[in-house]
Amino acid sequence: MGAGLPDWGGLLGSLIEKAETDHSISGDKAEDCRELAADSNKFLMLAQEMKEILGVEFKTVIEDVFGNPNLKPTPAHELLISLKNNRFIITTNYDMLIEQAFAASGEFRQGYKYYEAHALQRDLYKRSFFLLKAHGDAKTAPEHIILTDKDYRRILYKEPGYQSALQSIFTMYSVIFLGSSLQDPELRLLLNYINAAFPEGGIPHYALMTTDQIGDTERGRWKKDYNMRIIPISSDNNYEDLNRFLNFLKEVDAE
Description:
By secondary structure, the protein is mainly α. It folds into two domains: 8-66, no CATH class; 75-254, Rossmann fold (3-Layer(aba) Sandwich), CATH 3.40.50. It has twelve helices and six strands. Strands 1-3-2 form a three-stranded parallel sheet, covered by helices on one side. Helix 1 (8-21) runs parallel beside helix 3 (43-54) and helix 5 (75-81) packs parallel to helix 12. The longest helix has 19 residues, at 236-254. The relative contact order is 0.10. The model has no long low-confidence stretch (mean pLDDT 91). InterPro entries: DHS-like_NAD/FAD-binding_dom. It holds the Pfam family SIR2_2. It comes from Thioclava marina. This is SIR2-like domain-containing protein.
């Protein structure tokens, strides 16, 4: 969002607006959809509805929003790609901002998509750095992004190689979550699987979350249930704490 991209509600609003402009839905239907877009529990269902209504135009909206050539990486993107001891970067975002940040630094990085598990597994075996676009990207295959209920069912149950690679990543390495609400259905299922496999506690993971997103009780449950340490940050000054944290990692990286 710091680069000017929409959140979930904003994206759904763009899809609704497109459908209304194209006269694919009535004004009453559009208002009903906007009410659903205000409820985070209805996001996936509404996304499925809009994808079916828009048809081929769904792809157009995704390309226009996330493939905008005027989008530029933020300082957080630049700090992230500067961490030399990263084993990998995983993003569920559809944009190309991480690839652009690498290109600006003189490196070329093309992200694997969830359906390229063979290449992902090869780099895991070789312990080579990789970038994983876990839910696809808007530039190379906007029609294959993961956004709806059906999309999540497909990635959870029809991509066994990808799921196997994710399980390997989360059982071999500590993962730091930046800008994630930890509510992604795929992530929750994965963490539950790992918790069942290692009930005494596996490798610790970490997540930066704002203090208004999570309280002490929930923070304690994440640690007990998933071995996930929540690092509280402030949302002040456009989430400046995020950049401070990445700068800290960069300093540690250099030692």
